[in-house]
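I had to read the description of the data format several times before I understood it. For illustration, here is how one protein appears when written out as sequence plus structure tokens:
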Amino acid sequence: MGYFSAEPPEQPFRLFGPAHLAAIGVVSAGLCALRGARRLSPRGRRRVRTGLVAALWGQEVFYHGWRAATGRWTPQEMLPVHVCSVAVWGGGVGALTGNRALRDYAYYVGVMGATMAVLTPDLDRYGPRSVRFAQFFASHGLLVAVPVYLCVAEGYRPTWRGAGRTMALLALQGVVAHRINRAVGSNYVFVSRKPEFATALDALPPWPAYLPLMYAAAAAGVAALTVPFAGLPGRP
């Protein structure tokens, strides 16, 4: 199997194996390096921000192209309806334009959702000898990097107002995702049924009873990411 093959390599992914730990280390080192951007001029910070967004969008375009070239692009999996997919495009726009609602969404989804994805990735059997492995960690690492950069270098601070706005956007996204799921037979955001693979949702009641519990867990995570910044000065 080649590096760009759609078939998983003979060496499958191992949770917290050497390759996974190395990927976590690379993502962590990249996040730490962002602290140095505070010493840059406004023009330099703008270039870093633009570069991060370009890399974020570039890897997403590559992923769609790879799936299409290997015959694995389907509307049931690849529409930009996933929480992380919305954060890729919306968060990038927010970083470039300063839109506060999009920056808030990118912060909460990136720091909470993408960090969990890096630690417990859903990679099927794609190990380090597959391009999917590299793309996955690039995608989710950058999803964390963009809001972290905005926090450490450009003065962005999450607020309770932004937390509430993000929860409203997540609720709206769930409604839209459910309608799309019914139309194309997908399960975006897991709002139409539990995922077929093992997740923490397995411990919750059947659909639709688990939906408010899933939303409450998201609200708790959003609150936890807001508390450390409450009352701190910052820029929009």
In short: Helices lie at 18-33, 42-69, 75-78, 83-97, 100-119, 131-154, 160-184, 210-226.
